[in-house]
Predict the structure.
Amino acid sequence: MDFSLTDEQRMLADTLERLIADRVAPDQRRAMLEAPANERSALWRTFAELGLLHLPFAEEVGGLGGDGTDLMLIMRALGRGLVPDPYLAGLVLPGDLLARLGDAGQQARWLAPLLEGEHQLALAWQERDARYDAHGIVTTARRDEDGWRLNGGKQLVLNATSAAALLVTARHDDGRLGLFVVPADATGLTRRDYRTIDDQTASDMTLDAVSLSDDACLSRDAAQTLDATLALGRAALCAEAVGAMEVACEQTLDYLKERRQFGKPLSSFQSLQHRMVDMHLHLEQARSMAILAATSLDCPAAERDYRLAAAKAYCGEAARFVAEQAIQLHGGMGMTDECHVSHYAKHLVMFDHYLGDSDHHLEHVSDHLVDVM
Amino acid sequence: MNLTYSAEEQAFRHEVRDFLATSLPDDIRERVRLGRRLSADDHVHWQTILGGRGWLAGNWPKTHGGPGWSPVQRHIFDEECAAAHAPTVVPFGVNMVAPVIIKFGSEAQQRHYLPRILANQDWWCQGYSEPGAGSDLASLKTRAVRDGDHYVVTGQKTWTTLGQHANMMFCLVRTDPDARKQAGISFLLIDMASPGITVRPIITLEGAHEVNEVFLDEVRVPVANRVGEEGEGWTCAKFLLTHERTGIAGLGHAKQALRHLKSLAIREQHRGRPLLELASFRQRVVKVELELMALEVTNLRVIAAARDGGAPGAESSLLKVRGSELRQELSDLTRRALGPAALPFLPDFLHGEADLDDPTQAESAAGAAQYFNRRKLSIYGGANEIQKSIVAKTILGM
């Protein structure tokens, strides 16, 4: 049992903390969000120079062999800065699938440039009628004489606007879940782009007889691999939420110490002290769950998914609690766009809507409740 | 990072488990399992067995006769004891007064008291709370007036757990009424057989005699029984509150309670199906499962920090708050799971020696009583509201 960081991990955390403090201060972040998506690349280039784009991938595919703890440290730092760059959606999730499923040619074409920062990708796994269920999709993949033909629609594809290609799940005639690389400019692919309420760049997509060559198919049976990748994504999101919760707590505490009413600082009122402690308790318990998630990625699938579901559900509820209290304790200021904490609060509440919400994951825990007696 | 126990730690867990399987007397195990009161003899019997194995004083340093366990080993030991329905070691001697004597006591006090604690020759109780000094402990009024080689102690202590069995009490008394309130307090070791001491039972809402009032009327206590300097009693008391509190969440008990709850909710029937399939009930069990998972990792973080040389300070307040809330929720769900069978009140069985004809009634007899008993968890040892104020002050600087 070991909760300590290696020297390299401590250096990584320090480097990221400095980088984000220098480059993603709140005013800089506003400017980054206002820039067109394809111009928002200065920080990404720095990530590439620091090796951050290589870190989460195995050495066999050209990565640096980082583990769940490394990813946790990176995501926590990104969460502290609410960094807009799509580290998870544009790099980790599609890259992980390519690393696990791609052949040499597919990896050379799509993964190697991803790790070099030459392009970004996106993962299209969600569909309107399947809600958070990655397996219950209806987009189809049919074999034809030239290759593959995809029909259907995808929802909430993060980073599609900046992606050179999309990894798209589609169902084969035999019912199995296939995975395809769809170039962003493929004929028949249309996107409706939008900004989420917490400032993510996302798109809904229609695939109308999208023709793909043979080598676009990454796997004809990707279900289990997709589960592993989504588990990785959930662990990353939990860590990111912990980073954002830290800042929401810090800013709220600072505000309570500064703001005076009735002739004394708000921090001297016991009801507010106890509420602040409750936020802190939620943060520390969520941090424990994020650690559990990060260290469970190599467990057998059933155990991994049980723990990840528990962690994601728990962090979802903790994040909402911290967000709502942060707004409440900031009073009217917490309601303003100008106040930084409101941006953290938005991201923390909407955390629950990415990669499955608390109800979705509680159902998984509930279904397996007696397996772990 | 990794959350797995080392091979040595897992071997230790098996060693403890094997020991408990062979050495814990069946009648004691059964009384604990059913939530019945243990007699003083039961406690002494079990603690003598533990002492014989060298495992009574898990948190003592080796130099004073402890086993030299790491915080991780102590945690494993506590988990296995709870899982095996072993009695909790009565903490007042081994875990409370002994560390104070080791830290602040004279050599003579250490030589006299520590071996007696290890040999279960003394039963200690705690004289801290008073009718007018609960959360505000430092406002205590029990007076100790110097008279030659003695203090003459007069006052009243309360909530004295298992004081009815005790022959010794460690006691906070006011030796200087004019000093600032914490500064006037001293730490005395008092022989319960001294003239002027009266112990009266307090019966708690579930019908148990667990706590007492202790009246002290001009009780003469040798000055040699003072631990530390005069006026240093608060330092001793505070040391106790931060010393080795890595077990304060009661994690082993919570895990055992959750296992019991699940098996109970599978056995109990609702419309011909296991209660655990009732959605609203199952949902609450799921919430407890998650809270326990999070608390276990938080507890392991604190234990690992203690192992690596950090002193668990205010973090133990977090463990206490969440641990007590969790155990209370578990006792609530257990009571609910029993349904109508939770209602019969059987004090002669729970708190006495009477047998029951009906074995199923015995299985459910303690459910409601334990629910009410567990309300104490968020009150004693510094109420949860006090713990939150400690965190606000010491961690958050409010």
